[in-house]
Design goal:
2 copies of one chain form a homodimer.
Chain A lengths: L1 H16 L6 H11 L6 E4 L6 H10 L1 E6 L2 H10 L3 E5 L5 E2 L5 H12 L7 E4 L5 H9 L4 E3 L2 H4 L8 H9 L5 E4 L7 E4 L2 H8 L11 H18 L3 H6 L17 H24 L2
Parallel strand pairs in A: 1-2, 2-3, 3-5, 5-6
Antiparallel strand pairs in A: 4-8, 7-8
């Protein structure tokens, strides 16, 4: 029964988008395989998860959801998730259009009378003073992505990390040229040619666009690592507007320590403001 | 000399945009007339002001500038402004693409080594906890717009204020259909027809679009006030994503009092987080 309900939800999404990324039975088998591992948190990012996923999440860990609009927040809380991640448009990867500064209080207000679900703020958060800012607005914490891409432990190449240091926030563009859906990523001749060239056929719908982009961009990375300058120009990856705040490559431990001290400094800054009066 | 330098700056902008909004001499006369009044602050929003304006600002009050990107912040501080307003994409009216959460720390970092200029945060800020959030990130204060449009003292009509209460953040769209440049405003059949209808000729460049839109939208307001339902649908005005946080119409005094208590609550929330540990 649960499986059937899940199937319906997934099918609705597929027919809306005229896409067939995978069939619901395969999706369920992937979930079952995942939950054989010690998962403590499972987060769904594109739409309300099928009831089977929420049930499995509750049994093995915590079901969470990333949302980009107040309407999504309401739907996810009604569906039963236990953590909401309110992700602003400045985020890397798939994102909506509402900025973190507005989305966090808007999501908090929208779910207030439904159920007491903690809301994590996401989108643009690269340091502890931004974390303090989000928690001042009532977020229970933050969810971060791009900040880890500029660490020595990340999956990114050294070339991409160098490009992160050089980039400003306006170099993180929300385009369809990697997955077929609007996703924020580093501007490069790849994103520009697909999005703005008059000769571009336009991005293909998800999941077809990934079939075009992923292999090509892997070759680009290999050629760039081999010293090809034109390939270096083409290198791109998912990243949020927070890329404009990256000044150097740190260790993941260093990022955590910096977040802690920046958070404390921000709270001290707030208290000093009141002391002045 | 100053006037000549000013003329050059304005002419550059005009030839870039192929527009002729007014001639530099008229602009200077308008400034002179403005400064016969007791102006304490003059803020420039679209590009670096001519030196004459900054000089007059320094003589009579404080020259400020609204900026939407780190590059603009650097240019304005080098030009001599004494207050920077870092305005995120969530703001109403003309705005850029970088969100407030990222733009504030990015602008602060960019001007740190140039000159010590206070930065006000703008874009999406509708309450005191958001103000606390921005100041936790190092802003010297906030610059607010949309929150005042839902007050009894504002220039908006009662119909528009009611639409503000009904709107979510996603109803504040960044489109060219009022001024010719991207400006955030309330979605209505007016914005949708100009931007998305296949029959739309597209928005005219600034300042021509205002000649089309302003008179028409004034007629729309009059017809809506007279009870015309289709005119009510068309009613639109500049407003930021913060419109999604408007729950009721207040007095301006009420807004100020609410900001103060929300700010204090936010600081107390921060301190309580540390006490828990």
């Amino acid at each position: 029964m649960l499986e059937n309900a899940g199937v319906q939800v997934i099918e609705t999404e597929i027919s809306d988008e005229r896409q067939q990324p995978f069939d619901p039975e395969t999706a369920l088998r992937v979930l079952e395989a995942a939950f054989e591992h010690p998962i403590k948190l499972i987060a769904n990012a594109l739409g309300v998860p099928p009831p089977a996923m929420i049930e499995m999440g509750k049994k093995h860990g915590v079901p969470a959801a990333l949302v980009g609009a107040k309407e999504h927040a309401i739907r996810q809380v009604n569906a039963g998730v236990d953590i909401l991640v309110a992700q602003g448009t400045e985020a890397g990867g798939h994102c909506g259009e509402v900025a973190t500064m507005v989305l966090v209080p808007e999501a908090l207000a929208a779910i207030k009378n439904i159920r007491d679900v903690p809301v994590l703020a996401a989108g643009g958060i690269m340091n502890g003073s931004q974390m303090a800012a989000c928690m001042a607005m009532g977020a229970a914490g933050v969810w971060t992505g791009s900040v880890w891409l500029a660490t020595t432990e990340s999956e990114t190449s050294e070339i991409f990390r160098q490009k992160m240091i050089e980039a400003s926030s306006r170099d993180a563009v929300r385009v369809r040229s990697r997955t077929g859906k609007p996703a924020r990523q580093l501007r490069s001749p790849w994103t520009e040619s697909w999005e703005r060239s008059p000769e571009s056929p336009g991005a293909l719908p998800m999941p077809l666009m990934s079939l075009v982009s992923e292999n090509a961009l892997r070759s680009v990375e290999r050629a760039a690592a081999g010293g090809n300058d034109k390939a270096r120009d083409l290198v791109t990856y998912f990243v949020g507007q927070g890329v404009g705040l990256v000044e150097n490559v740190r260790s993941a431990t260093g990022v955590v320590q910096d977040f802690k001290s920046e958070f404390l400094e921000a709270v001290e800054r707030m208290n000093a403001l009141l002391d002045d009066e």
